[in-house]
Amino acid sequence: MPKIKHIGISTNDPGACADFYINAFGLTEVERSPDNDSAILSDGYINVTILKFRYDRYGGGYPGLHHFGFQVEDLDQSHELIEENGGAELTEWNETYGNQEGTPDNWVGEKKFMSPEGVALDVNPSGWKMRPGGVRGE
Questions:
Q1: Which of 15, 46, 79, 136 has its CA 20 to 30 A from that of 40?
Q2: CB-CB neighbours of 82 under 10 Å
Q3: Which pLDDT does position 29 carry in this prediction?
Q4: Can you give the residue range of the structural domain that contains 102?
Q5: Are 112 and 92 in contact (CB under 8 A)?
Q6: What angle do CA 99, 79, 30 make, to 5 degrees?
Q7: Per-10-residue mean pLDDT for the chain, 138 residues long?
């Protein structure tokens, strides 16, 4: 069964936004960029990525919720189900930029889609880091 594992929030001040979620809700800081343009937080189950986009890259609104992600067991099967239910692959984005990270034995394959309502979605069989020093999918 697919699980929501990742939510992205776009803001003008990622540092202050991250501090709010850490202080108000006790989220754990997984990592923060040196330039303070992004932060990854987690409650141990769902990853919250806070970003400062210089421009809107592939959908979603600004500021606010930009995208969220589902960890799935089978990327191809999920692709089919998304399209069967009115979603669309962001083919140009996926072909131009791709989302293939890691090593051959720890490959992270992710595709981006748009929901019927226009919300950007990351769909990934490998998951995201959920704690400092953790690995994807933990």
A1: 79
A2: 21
A3: 96
A4: 3-124
A5: no
A6: 40
A7: 86 86 86 91 91 68 70 86 88 74 53 81 80 69
